[in-house]
Amino acid sequence: MNMSLHNRQHRQKYAWIVTPVLFLVACFYGLTDGSVQISLLEIWHVISGSGESIHEKILMDVRLPRVLIGLFVGGCLAGSGALLQGVMKNPLADPGIIGISAGGGLAAVITMIVLPQLIYLLPLTAFLGAFCTSMVIYLLAWDQGTSPIKIILAGVAVNALLGAVTSGIMLIYSDRVQAVLPWLAGDLSGKGWYHFDFMSPYAAAGLLLCFLAIKPANMLLLGDDTAQLLGQRVEQQRFLLIILASFLAGIGVSVAGLVGFVGLVIPHIVRLIIGDDYRFLLPLSIVWGAALVVLADTAARSWFDPIELPVGILLASLGAPFFLFLLRKRRITT
């Protein structure tokens, strides 16, 4: 037992060393790679004001906002997945699988297709869609308390229903669908400072609130009975954590579309390395999720040049086999 604890502490120490390196590598990769290669020296020249105008235009108007948006999207989705897995005590819990992302996606599709005049409210409507969906799932699973298994089952059913409604709306407004298709695949192309400005206050607030969620998330890991004996209001805490997870998922969906597997795979990887303690699990998941989305988005737009692949497609192509590998190794328990 002591040896196991020592090994975990050893891994935690190295995880904290690797994390900032991974974060910086992702940021520099996103800024330097693409159809036009820009070296770190050229980035420094741009920062110091002596760079070429074309490089300054590419960095400041195209790549920098896209990298920042990718960081926020990945951090929000990974944080949402980590919270949901803890609340529901189920490693399959993920904003995409249990329907929260689908709720935000449906609200966003309605805003973009049916009510385009309200497009400036897209982050708010996506959050409201995710929040309302999570409340419906919560109520469906309620029976003198909520069961994590019931929440998962209700979420899968609601996810299927929302997917059908979204498809129906797209069929009805088929003349307007073309602009929404990249968003449904999960895409950061064309995102700039406008998108960063309207999502950053929401994303920053949601990620800061995650630090307040660490203690209740750890308490819920002890089990409902134990947490209640320690004076915790279990249902209230579970409710608030689901709201926070919905908020984070709605923010990510509102800008990047239906990007999957970040909230599912990243918390798994972190948990396998450092354990279940949310003091380490939640912040590391957020940073690793942020780095993953930036790395994947940069690869999606540079590896397949001149085609720019939506980042959601690349993440699904890599995330699904990796998750199946984990299942095959039986390192995930349900």
Short précis:
With 334 residues, the chain is an all-alpha fold. It has 13 helices and no strands. The radius of gyration is 20 Å and the shape is globular.
The total strand number stands at 0
* End-to-end separation: 23 Å
Fraction of residues in helix = over 70%
Top-tier CATH class: Mainly Alpha
Biggest sheet architecture: none
The helix/strand series, from N terminus to C terminus, equals: HHHHHHHHHHHHH
Quote the average pLDDT: 82
Q: Report the β-strand fraction as a percent range.
A: under 5%
Enumerate the spans where pLDDT stays under 50 for 5 or more consecutive residues. Answer: none
Report on this structure.
There is one protein chain. The protein has one domain: ABC transporter involved in vitamin B12 uptake, BtuC, CATH 1.10.3470.10. Helix 3 packs parallel to helix 8 (193-221) and helix 4 (100-114) crosses helix 10. Helices cover 76% and strands 0% of the residues. It has helices at residues 2-32, 40-48, 53-88, 100-114, 122-140, 148-172, 181-185, 193-221, 224-229, 234-256, 262-274, 278-302, 311-328. With 334 residues, it is mainly α. The protein is built from 13 helices and no strands.
